[in-house]
User: What shape does this take?
Amino acid sequence: MAQKPAIPKGTRDFLPAEVAKRNYIFDTIKTVFKQYGFAPIETPSFERSETLMGKYGEEGDRLIFRILNSGEKMKKADFTALQEGNLPRFANSLSEKALRYDLTVPFARFVVQHQNDIQFPFKRFQIQPVWRADRPQHGR
Assistant: This one.
């Protein structure tokens, strides 16, 4: 029997009417921010793991979606750590990138990286998705 198509748990599709409502709200928010001198920025959906790890505390680190290395980098996996039961070290050897958990740490990285290109105080707004590896409550 053919399996019905499905999306991953914790994600959702937006129908055209929902997208129209969201766009209206986002456009209104953006207009107000711009009126008060805020500028839009965007950061990548993923960051280097070392940028994200340790910034949210131990519990937060468990909620980060890691991106598996590919190609030649997989050959560098630390199997000794796996045999020793050191799962965090083994996981770090498999993944050098992770999806952002929120917009705070990527924004801090952005400011440090572009500090010579932006004028302070820097007024920005950012509306972008984030990913958390938790069990989403109903409606989240």
In short: The beta strands are 39-40, 46-48, 66-68, 95-99, 124-125. The longest strand covers residues 95-99. The mean pLDDT is 87.
